[in-house]
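Students often ask why inverse folding is considered easier than folding. One informal answer: many sequences map to the same fold, so there is more than one right answer. In these notes we will look at a single instance of the problem. The structure comes first.
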């Protein structure tokens, strides 16, 4: 059974960089054809896919967020991370990590991130 757990600060000020980490257990993030995504849900809105890192380390991002988003991984710790720069209050959301790229099988519980001055 694959389990994912997000961690990171919950409160940021505008212009700061959001950094979240997803620890994966039950599967290796380098297992062939496994992909690992970040997804967020702003208050009152639907889910928004942000980007993915593939089993071989390739990354793909939502075009509207591409200039501010970076996804990386630490294979020694079996975890992957999200960085979102220059945050604004519009980046306030629950952030999830999940397995998959277009359909998502396993999800973390989500972590609330609030951007406020």
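Output (designed amino acids):
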């Amino acid at each position: 059974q694959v389990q994912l757990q997000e961690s990171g600060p919950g409160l940021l000020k505008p212009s700061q960089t959001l950094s979240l980490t997803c620890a994966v257990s039950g599967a290796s993030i380098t297992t062939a054809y496994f992909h690992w995504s970040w997804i967020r849900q702003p208050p009152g809105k639907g889910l928004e896919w942000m980007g993915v890192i593939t089993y071989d380390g390739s990354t793909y991002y939502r075009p509207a967020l591409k200039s501010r988003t970076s996804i990386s991984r630490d294979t020694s710790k079996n975890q992957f991370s999200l960085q979102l720069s220059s945050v604004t209050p519009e980046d306030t959301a629950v952030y999830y990590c999940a397995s998959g790229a277009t359909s998502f099988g396993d999800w973390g519980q989500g972590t609330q991130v609030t951007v406020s001055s």
